[in-house]
Amino acid sequence: MDTVQANIEKSARIADIAIKIVWVLLWLVIVILAGVFFLTILIYCVEGPDGFSVFITTENVLEVFGSMILPDGVSPFEMFLRAAAVFCASTISYLVLLAAMLRSMGKIFSEIRQTLLPFTTANAQRMKKASIYMALLSVVPCLIGVAGNAVLNVQVDPLPLSLELLLAAAVLYCLAHIFEYGVLLQQQADETL
Hints:
By secondary structure, the chain is mainly alpha-helical. It has one domain (2-192). Helices cover 81% and strands 0% of the residues. It has helices at residues 2-47, 58-65, 76-115, 121-152, 163-192. Helix 4 packs antiparallel against helix 5. The longest helix has 46 residues, at 2-47. This is DUF2975 domain-containing protein.
């Protein structure tokens, strides 16, 4: 029994540390992505559209974003900013939801490491929360991309709707119910002893 508990503690520690590292790296990417976007806007506010005319031309915008049609009166840089806004909003929403899901999963491994008990009510609740984040992760970035394209009149390919991730969220939610049942069985076993 001691070997099993030692293996559980070791596995939970490794998973907890790995998830914390990935969580920190995700937030670093989010900050860098948002910073670059807002720095671009700041430079545009200071320099105006002429400050970017050397780098962003109609050909460059079409090369980056494919068969985009520039409406009359819209500069290539303005279209680039619109497309970048849709891309950033969709990507940042994806990364934030991924970080939230990983945080919930990290708390599960952290508690397992401390208590050596996987079947707790708190872990079941955290699994449900992670499954909800996972379901949102499969849908929200796609919806933001579609809505952003419609509102800003650009044609950027949105992040795809992930049916696999939605199915994985449903499976994780079911596993959370299995964990709740495991809590009940563990309580009954403890009362019997």
